[in-house]
Amino acid sequence: MTEMTKLRKALDAAGVNWYDDSFASPFGWVGIIRTKFTNKNGEKCSVICGEGTYGGEAGLLETMPPVHPYAEDDPFADDVEGWLTADEIIQAWI
């Protein structure tokens, strides 16, 4: 089971509505697998995996907003966070 599949199954089990916002490249291969949902804190979340994402080559997930919050004055506070497992996202947001 992939990390994205594991995340989607956990969202279903928790009754969290999500949708697939994946997209294909113009050459026919899927470019980015994307799952969007609202987490338990009311934040809109986007989780992606694919070539060129942080962790995608290893089958790991990238999120926006970050799962592990940065300090407010950190220049990366509104940045993405990558190299995450489904379990990390599940624990933080579901």
Give a quick precis of the structure.
The protein has 94 residues and is α+β, with helices and mostly antiparallel strands. Helix content is 21%, strand content 31%.
Tally of strands: 6
Head-to-tail CA distance between termini: 19 Å
H/E element order: HEEEEEEH
Broad structural category: alpha+beta
Summarize model confidence as the mean pLDDT: 90
**Count of discrete structural domains:** 1
Query: How would you sum up the global shape?
Result: globular
Indicate the percent of residues in helices: 10-25%
Question: How much of the residues is beta strand, in percent?
Answer: 25-35%
Count of helical stretches: 2
Q: What ranges have pLDDT less than 50 throughout 5 or more consecutive residues?
A: none
Gyration radius, rounded:
13 Å
The major beta sheet can be summarized as: 6 strands, antiparallel
Characterization of this structure:
With 94 residues, the protein is an alpha+beta fold. The protein has one domain (3-93). The protein has 2 helices and 6 strands. It has helices at residues 3-14, 86-93, and strands spanning 18-20, 23-24, 30-38, 44-50, 61-64, 81-84. Strands 1, 2, 3, 4, 5 and 6 form a 6-stranded antiparallel beta sheet that branches. Strand 3 (30-38) and strand 4 (44-50) form a beta hairpin. The longest helix is centred in the first third of the chain and has 12 residues, at 3-14. It starts with a helix and ends with a helix. The mean pLDDT is 90.
